[in-house]
């Protein structure tokens, strides 16, 4: 047996030698055989000959399997091959090279060539047009056309397409075509395999003869000279290698083994045979024993793992640590877990069974004005001695990682190894022990998710791409207690952990600009099967510090990175008087922040935190440049009080006098106290120590792996490959979506659920791409000598970005390769607007002053004002962009010049023009809401403004503002809508103030806010924005003379319109949703299984779906909204939203259950109201219903069916008789529910009394 294995080994060795001998002949790759050549063809004719020689595809009609001849990426040789993938279009200024070790092509920036660099776009199989891209110096590893590549005369061995080498003088002229193509058939590829096969045959014959001779001699002696019992001795000899072979065996043991084997041999054996046998055993038995023992041990371990599952870890592990990789692979766990103590492994197993770990990872952001000392402060925290810094001319985000010390009292700098661990890291102290859950699982098989997950998944077709992260129902059943009395829900949520998350995730190496597939492609062949979570033996508790650098022009995208999970360090130069203008922050005149004081900037930063992060996000004040007062705490407290006087009351909630520190550049004073404050602050946050699904650790490992070679990945790719790892795609989809949102909040990636299919893996890369667009004046000075300077000027002054300028700005990076992905992401984040396929508008770059005279010959409406506590500059930009991208508006042009300005934009819309402006109202009457976004409609005289259009525009803009601020916690400003007191053209120097809607209850308003009091005729101001009375078919008499509760007042019409919506499209949509989860044909069987969960049905409801005789046979058309809610909640297995069924969901939660809940609450609100609904309430309720309907439309996959119905009812006429009919229907439903509630409460009361007795 041993000899047979030895023969097998020899055969394998010979084959390896043969394969190795052919290594220089050609490599068989995905694209065929790659040949090394002396030179590449230099014209189309010779290129075609070479293509025919290799049997590559010819002709322009085919784009695949084309002939390529490229330098190797190390510039040492030239390679030719047939490229089986689609040929790539190469941008100007780039040559192409081939990376042998990865089997992909790559680009090479040839801008440093003295001549010959491609100056046009070309296809990769047309390289013969640019000979300079072939001419390389193999010794110096450079292109000869590069100025730094000095030619020398030397001899180098260049491999041709045979294994022979030819010496070539590198300073000689190019080879002739005959020399290049004169390739005779090389005999080596034929002779070497034949020689190898003959050699193997000879070796096998010799071994067979030797074996036969040895067996004959050996067994002949056994028959004549072996004592009785030697059979047992022989068996002992044959088994001994398995019994005594240990991995720890040293050389001495091997020697003794050889002696022992020799002693077991027969005494009559001659010395020569004993010597040969001893040598053979010593030479062969040791590795064979090891292999056999490892095989048997592996079989035993595999059987134990199959039997015990993850519980295998809580038993004694093999002492042979060489089995650990196999165990880790079998269990799909990090190998480091196997080195943990038994106690910690037990904790890990329990955590695996409940599927969650505790996460201790905080995030802080360092913000402040330019030159305030942010970078210096971070260096002091890190303990750097060199505090030299340079001013940042572009937006940059520098990430610094710290960890809490052993007693968690302060922070210390993390090691490089710890930085690589990620935000989710397995450690003994982070595993949550929940003893009550005993369901077995394993890492990568069925891991349960933490029960309070909110988002859910859609039961759509297998390869349907997700449109929104939260519009996805789940097939998972959930158990959540609820205070609601209509339904009982006793199911249990679970989610599968992602096992082998992505397999062989691949994409084309390089894609021509504007053609990137699915918005994002992976640049390399990546095998993600070996991705395992990070592990640390210490219980690392981490803090990531983001140093957010840049000037005011770059504030356009800082809000993207503000997260509710972060706290902030606001750095303020203590030497600055708060009332002086911060000239170094903005040097450009005429901008909204040109004359801002230091107090204004502090208010701006705190307002941004309050708006985009959290109303309670802690802010630590760091006062720099305190050398004059020696960093005296008393002086710092006095400066802090001055700041507080400049701030509105609600911003003071972010500050605390215990969180103020002053610093001197050359002193360590207060640094340690500051670090202790950072540790205490991060530990005080609500998410510190939160539980997340353990499967997310695997997701993070995959994202880190992808980030090594990719900046962007499409969500559809991730979703597809995640789905392939498990049957239960829905769970995978939900788990991945929730994880991506978590990683976005923690700063690992950039991902927005409302952006369909783009995941930015490298956040700084995305910022750098935008930074190249929003360059500053310093960059403009460099560009003045360029050909297209006028187009650069358009971008710098007007914010108009042309495709030509974008190519130049992104040409020396890989941004343009991902043009579609980047531009689409910036569009979705409202950072720019698409005016055409070749032109975009970047609002934050616009520096033009608005000339109000352009509207001199126009009729104008009153000004509709949306009031804000804090400067909504980003919201203003986003509103302008969304009006262009979503509402179909276009910039108005005068004399071929677009009317877009720094603080004003004029857009054309249906023969009207819409002026959108942002105003800074610092007058005393507006101190509570000092900022406003104002809308004014205008038309050219003598045309009149269509008030039906303006009223509709008000609703559309209101809705868009609501969408733009979804997730912004301080969005209650929409209760504050007002109008300017005078009907004047915007920008005209006429004093006016804002009157809120609440102040305009009467027909006239006495405006005392202006310096000269005047009377405002409310009707003349509001008429532009109110619905035309003719639209509602209501008469004046019906409004004034009727006192009936259903009289057609505006408030009652609002209420009845909502009632009509609930009983019509909303009810029908819920019916379709029930049909999606339970087809009517399956309903009788399902309802019988679930009837125990439907204890609170009313009698009519029970008779309908559970009749005494027969079964329900309808199509759900006879079910009202109340019954539909009960069935969707209890029977369909839809996972509850994060607040639980029956409770008001979070405003940011757009899961299926949350949207169903909103429709139920809107129904109840209509039924419980008898006095009508104000315009403000109506707009809010309608907006919420419409958003829920839009999300559920996407779940159903039916386009905009019910959204269109909602929009139709909003503008349709209302009949008072129909109004009453809808109200009566809702009231009847509520009456039935109230009756059953009272009955249940009586029964519950009796039950409690009986239990008490």
Question: Secondary-structure map with pairings?
Answer:
Layout: H1 2-21, E1 27-29, E2 32-37, H2 44-53, E3 64-71, E4 78-86, E5 89-90, E6 94-99, E7 104-109, E8 122-123, E9 136-137, E10 142-143, E11 155-159, E12 165-169, H3 177-181, H4 188-225, H5 230-244, H6 251-264, H7 271-308, H8 324-331, H9 342-354, E13 356-359, E14 361-368, H10 374-382, E15 396-404, E16 411-413, H11 416-419, E17 425-426, E18 534-535, E19 542-549, E20 566-573, H12 598-612, E21 619-624, H13 633-645, E22 660-662, H14 671-684, E23 690-693, H15 695-707, E24 712-713, H16 715-724, H17 729-745, E25 759-760, H18 763-773, H19 777-783, H20 789-798, E26 800-802, H21 803-810, H22 819-828, E27 833-836, E28 839-841, E29 858-860, E30 864-868, H23 873-885, E31 890-891, E32 893-894, E33 897-898, E34 904-909, E35 912-920, E36 931-940, H24 947-964, E37 977-980, E38 994-996, E39 1004-1007, E40 1014-1017, H25 1018-1022, H26 1036-1040, H27 1050-1077, H28 1083-1090, H29 1099-1105, H30 1121-1130, H31 1152-1167, H32 1175-1196, H33 1201-1211, H34 1216-1252
Parallel strand pairs: 14-19, 14-20, 17-18, 20-21, 21-22
Antiparallel strand pairs: 1-2, 2-4, 3-4, 5-8, 6-7, 9-10, 11-12, 13-23, 15-16, 15-19, 24-25, 26-28, 27-28, 29-36, 30-36, 30-37, 31-34, 32-33, 34-35, 35-36, 37-38, 39-40
């Amino acid at each position: 047996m041993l000899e047979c294995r030895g023969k097998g080994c020899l055969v394998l060795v010979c084959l390896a030698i043969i394969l190795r001998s052919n290594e220089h002949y050609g490599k068989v790759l995905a694209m065929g055989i790659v040949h090394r050549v002396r030179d590449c063809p230099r014209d189309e004719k010779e290129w075609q000959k070479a293509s025919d020689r290799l049997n590559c595809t010819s002709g322009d009609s085919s784009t695949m399997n084309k002939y390529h001849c490229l330098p190797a990426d190390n510039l040492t040789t030239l390679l030719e091959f047939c490229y089986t993938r689609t040929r790539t279009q190469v941008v100007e200024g780039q040559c192409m090279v081939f990376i042998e070790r990865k089997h992909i092509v790559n680009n090479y920036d040839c801008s440093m060539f003295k001549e010959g660099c491609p100056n046009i776009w070309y296809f990769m199989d047309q390289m013969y047009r640019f000979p300079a891209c072939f001419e390389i110096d193999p010794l110096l590893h450079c292109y000869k056309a590069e100025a730094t590549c000095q030619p020398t005369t030397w001899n180098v061995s260049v491999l041709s397409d045979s294994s022979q080498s030819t010496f070539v003088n590198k300073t000689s002229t190019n080879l002739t075509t005959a020399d290049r193509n004169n390739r005779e058939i090389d005999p080596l590829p034929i002779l070497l395999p034949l020689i190898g096969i003959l050699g193997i045959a000879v070796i096998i014959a010799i071994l067979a003869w030797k074996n036969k001779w040895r067996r004959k001699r050996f067994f002949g002696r056994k028959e004549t000279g072996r004592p009785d019992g030697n059979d047992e001795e022989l068996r002992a000899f044959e088994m001994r290698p398995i019994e005594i072979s240990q991995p720890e065996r040293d050389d001495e043991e091997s020697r003794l083994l050889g002696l022992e084997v020799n002693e077991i041999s027969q005494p009559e054996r001659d010395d020569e045979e004993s010597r040969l046998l001893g040598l053979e055993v010593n030479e062969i038995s040791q590795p064979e024993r090891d292999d056999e023992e490892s095989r048997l041990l592996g079989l035993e371990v595999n059987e134990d793992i199959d039997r015990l599952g993850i519980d295998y870890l809580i038993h004694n592990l093999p002492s042979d640590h060489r089995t650990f990789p196999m165990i880790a692979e079998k269990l799909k766990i990090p190998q480091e877990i196997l080195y943990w103590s038994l106690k910690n492994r037990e904790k890990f197993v329990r955590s695996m069974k409940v599927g969650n770990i505790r996460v201790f990872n905080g995030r802080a952001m360092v913000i402040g004005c330019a030159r305030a000392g942010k970078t210096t402060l971070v260096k002091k925290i890190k303990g750097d001695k060199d505090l030299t810094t340079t001013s940042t001319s572009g937006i940059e985000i520098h990430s610094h990682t710290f960890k809490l010390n052993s007693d968690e009292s302060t922070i210390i700098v993390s090691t490089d190894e710890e930085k690589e661990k990620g935000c989710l890291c397995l450690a003994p102290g982070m595993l949550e022990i929940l003893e009550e859950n005993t369901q077995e699982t394993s890492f990568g098989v069925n891991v349960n998710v933490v029960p309070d997950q909110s988002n859910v998944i859609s039961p759509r077709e297998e390869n349907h791409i997700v449109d929104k992260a939260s519009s996805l129902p789940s097939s998972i059943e959930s158990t959540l207690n609820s205070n609601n009395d209509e339904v009982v829900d006793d199911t249990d949520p679970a989610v599968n952990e992602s096992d082998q998350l992505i397999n062989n995730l691949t994409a084309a190496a390089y894609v021509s600009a504007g053609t990137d597939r699915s918005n994002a492609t992976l640049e390399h062949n990546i095998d993600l099967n070996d991705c395992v979570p990070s592990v640390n033996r210490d219980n690392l508790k981490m803090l990531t510090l983001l140093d957010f650098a840049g000037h005011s022009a770059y504030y356009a995208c800082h809000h993207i990175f503000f997260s509710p999970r972060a706290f902030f360090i606001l750095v303020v130069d203590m030497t600055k008087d708060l009332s002086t203008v911060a000239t170094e922050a903005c040097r450009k005149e005429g901008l909204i922040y040109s004359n801002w004081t230091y107090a204004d900037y502090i208010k701006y930063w705190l307002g941004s935190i309050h708006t985009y992060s959290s109303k309670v996000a802690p802010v630590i004040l760091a006062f720099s440049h305190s050398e004059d007062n020696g960093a005296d705490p008393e002086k710092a407290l006095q400066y802090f009080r001055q700041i507080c006087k400049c701030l509105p009351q609600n911003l003071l909630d972010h500050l605390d006098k215990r969180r103020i520190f002053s610093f001197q550049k050359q002193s360590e004073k207060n640094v340690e106290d500051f670090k202790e404050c950072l540790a205490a602050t991060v530990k005080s946050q609500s998410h510190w120590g939160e539980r997340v699904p353990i499967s997310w650790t695997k997701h993070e490992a995959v994202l880190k792996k992808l980030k090594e070679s990719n900046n962007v990945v499409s969500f559809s790719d991730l979703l597809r490959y995640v789905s392939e790892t498990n049957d239960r795609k829905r769970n995978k989809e939900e788990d991945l979506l929730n994880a991506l949102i978590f990683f976005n909040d923690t700063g690992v990636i950039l991902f927005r659920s409302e952006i369909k299919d783009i995941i930015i893996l490298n956040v700084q890369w995305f910022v750098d791409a935008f930074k190249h667009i929003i360059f500053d004046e310093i960059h403009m000075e460099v560009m003045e000598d360029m050909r297209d300077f006028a187009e650069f000027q358009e971008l710098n002054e007007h914010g108009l970005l042309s495709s030509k300028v974008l190519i130049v700005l992104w040409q020396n990076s890989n941004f343009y390769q991902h043009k579609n992905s980047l531009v689409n992401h910036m569009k979705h984040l409202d950072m720019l607007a698409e005016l055409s396929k070749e032109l975009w508008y970047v609002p934050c770059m616009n520096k033009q002053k608005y000339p109000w005279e352009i509207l001199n010959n126009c009729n104008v409406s009153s000004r509709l004002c949306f009031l804000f506590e804090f400067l909504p500059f980003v919201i203003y930009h986003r509103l302008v962009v969304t009006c262009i991208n979503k509402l179909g508006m276009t910039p108005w042009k005068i004399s071929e010049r677009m009317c877009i300005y720094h603080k004003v934009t004029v857009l054309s819309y249906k023969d009207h023009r819409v002026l959108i402006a942002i105003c800074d109202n610092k007058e005393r009457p507006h101190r509570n809401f000092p900022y406003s976004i104002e809308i004014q409609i205008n038309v050219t005289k003598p045309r009149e403004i269509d008030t039906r259009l303006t009223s509709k525009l008000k609703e559309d803009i209101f809705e868009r503002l609501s969408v733009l601020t979804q997730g912004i916690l301080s969005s209650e400003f929409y209760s504050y809508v007002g109008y300017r007191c005078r009907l004047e053209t915007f920008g005209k120097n006429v004093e006016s103030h804002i009157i809120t809607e609440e102040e305009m209850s009467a027909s006239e308003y006495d405006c005392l806010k202006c310096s000269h009091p005047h009377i405002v005729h409310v009707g003349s101001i509001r008429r532009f924005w109110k619905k035309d009375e003719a639209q509602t078919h209501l008469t004046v008499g019906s409004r004034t003379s009727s006192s009936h509760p259903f009289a057609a007042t505006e408030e009652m019409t609002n209420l009845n319109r909502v009632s009509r919506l609930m009983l019509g499209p909303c009810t029908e949509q819920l019916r379709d949703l029930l049909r999606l989860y339970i087809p009517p044909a399956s309903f009788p069987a399902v309802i019988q299984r679930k009837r125990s969960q439907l204890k609170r049905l009313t009698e009519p409801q029970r008779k309908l779906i559970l009749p005494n005789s027969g079964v329900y046979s309808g199509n759900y058309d006879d079910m009202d909204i109340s019954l539909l809610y009960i069935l969707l909640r209890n029977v369909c297995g839809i996972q509850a939203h994060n607040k639980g069924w029956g409770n008001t969901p979070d405003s940011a939660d757009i899961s299926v259950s949350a949207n169903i809940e909103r429709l139920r609450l809107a129904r109840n609100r209509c039924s419980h109201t008898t006095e009508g609904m104000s315009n403000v309430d109506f707009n809010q309720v309608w907006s919420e219903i419409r958003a829920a309907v839009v999300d559920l439309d996407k779940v159903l996959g039916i386009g905009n069916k019910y959204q269109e119905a909602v929009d139709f009812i909003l503008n349709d006429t209302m009949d008072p008789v129909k109004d009453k009919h809808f109200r009566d229907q809702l009231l009847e439903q509520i009456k039935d529910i109230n009756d059953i509630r009272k009955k249940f409460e009586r029964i519950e009361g009796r039950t409690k009394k009986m239990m008490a007795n």
